Amino acid sequence: MANNSLSQRITQGLQSDLPVTKWLPEYDRAWLRTDIVSGLTVSAAVIPGGLAYASLAGLPPQTGLYAALMGALTYVIFASSRQVIVGPTSPLAVLLLTEVGPIAAGSAMEYISLVTTTTIMVGIICVFAWIFRLGDLVNFISGSVLTGFASGAGLYIISTQLGKLFGISGSSGTFFQRVGFIITHLNEAQFTTVAVGLISIVLLLLGKRFLPRAPTALLVVLLAIAVSSILNLQAQGVTIVGQIQSGLPPVTAPLIPSIGVVESLVPVALALFILSYVQGIGAVQTFARRNNYRADPDQELLADGAANVGAGLFGGFVVGGSMSRSALNDSMDGKSQLVSAVVVGVLVVVLLFLTGLFTTLPDATLGAVVTVAVLGIIDVDGMQRLRSISQNEFIIALAALLGVLALGMLWGVFIGVFLSLAIAISRASNPKKEVLARIPGTDHFASREQHSEAIEEPGVLVYRVDAGLFYANTNSVQDDLLERIEEHETPVDLIVFDLSSSPMVDLASVEMFEDLHRTLEPRGIDLRLAGVNEQVLEMFEAASLDETLGDIHEEETVASIIDTVKNPTR
Q: pTM, whole model, 2 decimals?
């Protein structure tokens, strides 16, 4: 019996932490055909994307394929999502280049080593976040901040590709510095490179518009390779990818950097963790809702961590969930992570036998692939919607956008996090507060501002806060209530504090009620509490608040308190 119990616990633990042990034995064979087709279609997007994002990160092209392979392989095992595809993404790649590159001080080998270390650090941070069940922290990242950050990131990434599209080398720095450099060096633009880049962009946009389910990026890449080989574009000054190392990813043991270097990498790894998880969990939740199942945010931390540790140990770089590739998978009716397994198989074949095919691929075409891919994250409609609905939200989104453009991706991430926390703190410390009045002929009390027909009881002020009461907002609540008492049209002798919209309280709120009692009692004002739930009542009883305010009853209504106090003989 004990052995059965132990076996059940082990099985439940495996199914919880290794979802593949649950979904694979239960796999519906009717899904096999669509999953294979989806896997092949997604692979056609992953291959050019991997090459392009490796170039964006300033790494050898094969590292993008390694990252896509190892990210997908490990994600299959640990993922709770059925549709999300994990691999390199443009924001992660450019953040690596702009923040880890300067630490390497111009050494290509040092840069690759530091990328490996940083990628593994990101994975370790994810695992620690999983251990402490921090998956819901993503909910504190404001939607308006994400809209602004994503739009800024898209513009910044495009600025990093201008050099490839114009054949101009030497641009660096922020968005404005990069754009300014290209503008002032347009006389150095290489005509053939510009033509290749422009034609590639046009073809990619046409394919996206008229053939949304076709592997347009792969087709454009193959066409560019053919044209480059036939016309010998390299001899005409067009930069090409060059030799790509073939074979499966090698085990890459990270060199342990100095303490000073580790200190420099920690904020970069934290920013990459935030960016990787936020963009990934957004895709996870989107497709879980669309396909009517529940994904586990904490499990996704473990999956993201495993994917990054795997990518780091096998020659890749930081990976995360890709919204565009996941959307492609969903549009092809992919039903499970078997799609990612098919992607792994295709990448193995490409790495073993087909890397030579991409040798003559123009860099301008890779720049075009990146540029068109990130156009989708520049959310013009979202910014306009924020502007029309809430000027404050629009300003916050604009601040996040300008933070990325003016200061770069790293500071853009931290500005986004800071703004999100500032918004959460501001809203928590200044919740909505309102005075209630009785709806005529009923025992129901509602906001005076929303119900003009509501009538206040003589000498009674009914007050409600639409939030939990805790240390961050008790001062503002207390000050607001006392101010409303002073401004009340008639003298008040009874305050009924309605807690029906305050599901939680802490010790600071208990102390607030004690302070209010001490302030109001000498003025002949009685303070009573209504709408107290069980959890809140337990806190009040533990703090002996009932000895100060008198009896406090669970779920006692505003009307019953008023009747009891005003009509004690009833």
A: 0.82
